[in-house]
Write a structure and sequence with these properties.
445 residues; alpha/beta; Rossmann fold; Dihydrodipicolinate Reductase, domain 2; 3 domains; 15 helices; 15 strands; 35% helix; globular; binds nicotinamide-adenine-dinucleotide
Length: 445
């Protein structure tokens, strides 16, 4: 642990350094580590101190659930970012760059995985093998081989994985589920689902590791896992078969103005995708000031020629209850939101969710139920505070507040994590092979 840029006073630095050394020394000697746990709070370790780890699963969890949990270790392969992350989270837990060493040293009961998607399986499996419960960010993993390894490890360890599908907890998703459960449109038979990412949010996925198939599994997995999970949960059914198309039509090789990253780009003035990350102190500290360790550029050019994911995607999915879905995901739209239409034996439900658009939206979402040979009724929805249409705080209550009721079955485990990720994996395999792909051919449960 170096003192450089830790922002600690000399006294604080010495206290922390001696604490970390004592913990590591105890572990090496085989003695019980200095465990924060005497308080009776759940001992939590977090791996991946990027923006998601330090905010959603870091500072807010440490503050809101301080009576239930205690951070006992933080890990990131970037030694500077883990220290910046610790300060942003505002805890006094020891920091590590080696995940196994953290597990051995602080012996957490629960591990939160917020690393890059393609490494989730490594931390999930090692945490399970160490006897920990696991909470992992979506997507649970990025390909069928890693997915099988996670499912097998969970069975063997007899411990539970929770996959944090926050979209299930948004007021819009909850209202949609309640309408379906009420039987207002009869039995669902087919779905049109179209998700629009705008030129700001959509472009952001092309600025860093998400833009590579090897790291994110493509947006079919990284992003669409949310959407596929929503449908699995709404229908209470599994995906069976996927046929998909995808192309790269706007970002990557399609651009004419190209640089290394926005901060150093000679085209700042004329490029519509120029993004000035220096305006965010948080991002500068977490990423720019840690670049020297691993070369991770948070503002890399969206027109890098080696980008190998799709930005324009369509799929047809067949479900175990016979429902057929037509789905699309586009990443360079003039507005942000989605349109979900569910056709049933007695009518149709239309949901239009508005996230960002260059006109005044009537509400966060508009709902319309139209009955066959009958009336059409509309209703609007205002949503609660908190990220993702008020979903994030509800998800965390479900996880950290014992006794929180789960009436809509929103809590998701490894099966849900697998089914949604595998729908995306099947879409990628379908595009690569030019054929329909069956989910059952990818993983055995
Ligand atoms: N549910 C949501 O709405 C939502 C939103 C944003 C991000 N996420 C998910 O959260 C995760 C983190 O996203 P982010 O935007 O913070 O990414 P990020 O790249 O900013 O942070 C990931 C961190 O993990 C570290 N890391 C990578 N490999 C590691 C390894 N093998 N061991 C230890 N540390 C490692 C990186 O150095 C980095 O600091 C991703 O899985 C992402 O899909 C979910």
């Amino acid at each position: 642990m170096t003192r450089q840029k830790t922002g600690l006073t000399r006294r604080e630095f010495i206290d922390r350094a001696s604490k970390t050394t004592a913990v590591a020394a105890a572990a090496v000697a085989g003695a019980p580590a200095v465990l924060a746990g005497q308080s009776g709070k759940k001992r939590i370790a977090l791996v991946g101190t990027g923006i998601r780890g330090t905010t959603m699963w870091g500072s807010s969890v440490a503050r809101v659930y301080k009576d239930q949990i205690e951070f006992v270790g933080l890990c990131d392969i970037n030694r500077k970012r883990v220290e910046v992350g610790r300060q942003m989270i505002g805890v006094d837990a020891p920091t590590f760059t080696d995940f196994d060493q953290m597990l051995r040293t602080v012996k957490p009961e629960l591990v939160i995985v917020t690393t890059k998607d393609s490494t989730h399986h490594e931390q999930i499996i090692r945490a399970l093998e160490s006897g920990c419960e696991v909470i992992t960010e979506k997507p649970m993993t990025t390909d069928e081989r890693k997915c099988q390894a996670i499912i097998d490890a969970e069975k063997k360890a007899g411990r539970q994985i929770t996959v944090t599908f926050n979209y299930r907890y948004s007021s819009i998703a909850e209202k949609t589920k309640e309408i379906l459960m009420s039987g207002a449109i009869g039995r669902p038979t087919s779905i049109d689902f179209h998700w629009y990412l705008d030129v700001n949010h959509g472009a952001d996925y092309f600025r860093r590791w998400h833009a590579y198939k090897e790291s994110s599994g493509t947006l079919w997995v990284h992003k669409a896992t949310h959407h596929f999970d929503l449908i699995n949960w709404l229908l209470d059914a599994d995906p069976v078969e996927v046929t998909a198309f995808g192309d790269l039509r706007n970002y990557g090789r399609n651009g004419k103005l190209r640089g290394k990253n926005c901060r150093t780009c000679p085209h700042q003035k004329e490029c519509p995708f120029y993004w000035d990350m220096t305006r965010s102190r948080q991002l500068m500290q977490l990423y720019a000031e840690c670049e020297s360790e691993d070369g991770y550029l948070r503002d890399a050019c969206v027109f890098r020629e080696d980008i190998d994911i799709y930005d324009t995607m369509t799929a047809n999915v067949k479900y175990s209850n016979g429902v057929l879905m037509s789905y699309s995901l586009n990443t360079y739209m003039p507005y942000e939101g989605y349109h979900l239409g569910i056709n049933g034996t007695m009518g149709r439900l239309d949901v239009r969710a508005y996230e960002r658009q260059p006109w005044e939206a009537p509400a966060a979402a508009e709902f319309r139920i139209t009955r066959n040979f009958g009336k059409s009724e509309t209703s609007d929805l205002r949503v609660g505070a908190g990220g993702h249409f008020g979903a994030d705080p509800k998800l965390k209550d479900m996880i950290f507040k014992p006794g929180t009721p789960d009436t809509l079955k929103q809590r998701a485990g490894s099966r849900a994590g697998a089914m949604s990720a595998l729908t995306g994996v099947a879409a990628v395999r379908s595009i690569e092979g030019g054929r329909p792909v069956k989910i059952a051919d990818l993983v055995k449960f």
